Amino acid sequence: MSTLVTLPVLLPMLGAALTVIGSRSARAQRLVGVVVLAAVSVVAAILLVAADRGGPVVAELGGWPAPVGIVLVADRLSALLLLISTVVTLAVLVYAIDQRIADYGPETPSTTFHPIFLLLSAGVSLAYLTGDLFSLFVAFEIMLAASYVLITRRTSASRIRSGMTYVIISLTSSLLFLTTIALVYAATGTVNLADLAQKVGALPAGLQTVLALMCVVVFGIKAAIVPLHFWLPDSYPNAPAPVTALFAGLLTKVGIYALLRTQTLIFPQDHPSTLLLVIAVLTMIVGALGALAQNDLNRLLSFLLVSHIGFMLFGLAVFDAAGIAGTALYIVHHITVQATLFLVSGLITRRTGTVSIDAMGGLAKTSPALAVLFAIPALTLAGIPPTSGFVAKLALLEAGAGAGPGTTVVAAVVIVSSLLTLYAMVRVWVRVFWGAPKEPLTDPDPTDELVVGTARTAKPMYVATGALVAVSVAIAVAAGPLSAVTGRAGQDLLDRGPYRVAVLGEGRAP
Fold first, then answer.
1. Which residues form the NADH:quinone oxidoreductase/Mrp antiporter transmembrane domain (predicted)?
2. What is the reported pTM?
3. For the chain, which residues make up each domain, given as ranges?
4. φ, ψ (nearest 5 deg) of residue 132
5. Is there a contact between 279 and 313 (Cβ–Cβ < 8 Å)?
6. How many separate helices (H) and strands (E) can be counted in the chain?
7. How far apart are CA 499 and CA 28, in angstroms?
8. How large is the angle between the packed helices 497-504 and 479-495, nearest 10 degrees?
9. Neighbouring-strand partners of residue 58
10. Which is nearest to 393 in space by CA: 484, 339, 332?
11. What are the pLDDT digits (tens) for 63-99?
């Protein structure tokens, strides 16, 4: 079983190498990508079942035991997020493949897209599974390098500008993360997460606070929490729809996962965090209000992405099993629905030739299927019953209402932010799908990666998007068993004992 833990990282890397070797065959590249991600999905499902039944599954790389060697750990939380992330990545890849076939023909290979896409998947898998801070840093650097290539393929001046913003902010975060790792190692002599769970507690309280705040800043930049969010609305909207969907669905959630892991394992608390509650409120409100001010559909969705990062941060700030379980459930829901909405935005842009909401109209008449594909995830994001968004928000509200007056106030902000999200989605629906149909605009830049204004879309692109909608519906249908798994995952994060015993062994994990 421990061998399986390495496969979500190794298989995409091997697949990336194979797609480079087979770069002259578009069919071979597509086959490798789909088969690799399907295999990783199966492995992730097996790891989730194994972790849920028998505790964390650990792989010691190179035969070196922790805390000296590098370990990969699949517990309930990491295996669950790995599974949903890989399923979403597979659907996005199918969408991207069909989009490329529609635009360039079935025999046109890509020298960069498939290997870089798989490399990004490997980085995400490593971030979820790693058992030490330095390997987490490596995972972030893999994701950064792959992300920059995907943003700037067949580039334009505006995309280079947004890509540079993304890279500069990410490199700043990486330097700060490397500094944090150095300080942690200097103070404790280890970077292994399970080992740090014991050794950090022996440090002076002031030093613990400084290290915890540095982790919040580092991972807060990755997760785009307010006021560290400014890079996201300028970076994501300029990329092609599959790339934006992948970034929105996965990359910010990796930052939230890192916050969850470090704050519960290394810097645990027995009461709600006032700082995180304040940041959660600001993130929810600023993101929602920013969305209402947008006429660009992708920027509107980007600001809503920021807003809902605050929902996840709220569950962590509660700092009890129910709150953390609510955050885990919300991450699963949000990975799916946010990626779906950006894929739908790509379909809308292809038909209309624009991202301007005011320049659209009447799509419910010209493309009823597209209207359905937008309506379901839009209602899910707003948390309308009985969608997965409602189930996840209800879990957060119950946790917040039972944790004290401060968290109850923030729970009220969750409701307000949800209403603002609903208003933003209704506004998009009225302007984009109602009214008289408008003629599609011509493609302003036929040489870039985005082919728009075609008033046509390959049917498989609809199928890939519909598959993600179906996953979101399945999450709502399976809310009971899924909530039970996230509940056990939340309890594991607070207990810390099973994780430390699995990584360090009985004798080294008091």
1. 131-414
2. 0.92
3. 1-131, 132-268, 269-491
4. -145, 160
5. yes
6. 21, 2
7. 40
8. 70
9. 73
10. 332
11. 788 888 889 999 999 999 999 999 999 999 999 998 8
